Amino acid sequence: MDKMFFVAITRAAIFLPSLFLIEYYFFRYLHKAFLELNIFKTKQKLVRLFLFILIYINLFPVFQTIVSVHSVIYPETDFEIPKSFIIDYLFRIPSWYAILIMVQIILFFASVHLIFVFLKKIKLSFYQRIKIYLMRYFVLLLIIFIPYVLLRSYYDYKNVKVEERIYYLNSQKKDLEGLKIAFISDIQIDRFNKEDRVQNYINKVNELNADIVLAGGDFISGDSNYIPVVASIAGRIKSNLGVYSAIGDHDFAGFKKEYFRSLDSVKSALKANNVKMIDNGNLLFYVNESMIKITFLSNTYIKAFDEMIFDSLARSNPEADLKILVAHQPEENVAKKAMSYGYNLYLTGHTHGGQINFLFPFKRISPVMFETKFISGDFWFDGMLMIVNRGLGMSTMPIRYHSTPEITLIRIKVGKME
Q1: Domains in the chain, number
Q2: Which strands sit side by side in the sheet containing 212-215, from one edge to the other?
Q3: pLDDT digits 0-9 by tens, 224-235
Q4: pLDDT digit string, tens, across residues 56-73
Q5: Domain residues for 278?
Q6: pTM for this entry
Q7: Which is nearest to 216 in space by CA: 294, 136, 332, 323?
């Protein structure tokens, strides 16, 4: 409990002050822009409007933070914010969109604002003549980014991309030529990521006619009621060699604080639908005379990477012609270990591709960058390719922004890269 209490307090101590600082900066210059451009006739009306907006958008994040800390201090209680349509769509989602829009605008405004601050320091009279352009720029950003953020997040909610890779396998055998591996991760079904969206994702997997389908875990978000639902949908995946998954963080979250009961329920429901979830184990296949070895490594917050277990799994069947490692979280030390054991592919998810990726010139800015540098895409470790799949679901905020859901299709070619 001491560790969980420390984490909860630390998150609250970082999140709320950061949020209030963002809001202070944003509304200060929104206020200046509206007054400078005479958008509101009286200052009092503007202040009252801003006060109402601030109270409204802060109700959910403040209360959610209090509830999170309370649940750690008093773990025996089951108090949480009710899951209701009114709370979700009148408070939760508007609050997250407001924060998202404010941060996106600030990223573009602050850099230009710094230039104006410098001009003010060196030549005050010149600054007084041009400062109106700074206010116009702020309003322009409002006009651009309010609809853009809403439309882009809607696009990322409705669409799925199939990202194809070709992996050249250095082998004398031709048995694995043309093998197709589909990799999915982080389905995370819940009341925001509903059945029809998950089914659409699975339909696109089936259109690929993959020889084998692998998954990085996280079939649920945190509600045990969705375990049989997602298992039934996952059971509709078509594959010649079957469907297999590693365990994910959220697979432990179906029952509050009953982590392994949740994992057992997810595994049992998936197994009943012909999807096998493997907790630290190897899987062997033969395609004619060629052996495929797939290692499923448990690497989550609840059940972390165990080096001794991985060593044991990796040393087994070293003669395999194609070696694949599947784990939920991407980690550099795991990748280097896998490379040293001759694995060809390391398939992972967890990050949701950042989930929230702010527009900014020449740089991806996402909260996930504070956890890992492996946000999405391909990372080479000598001859081993690590792929971080963007997945489908959403965590914390029920929004994806510049992170279109992904299905990874890997085609095996035998021979050296052309």
Answers
A1: 2
A2: 161-169, 406-414, 180-184, 212-215, 243-245, 275-277
A3: 999 999 999 999
A4: 999 999 998 888 777 777
A5: 161-414
A6: 0.92
A7: 294
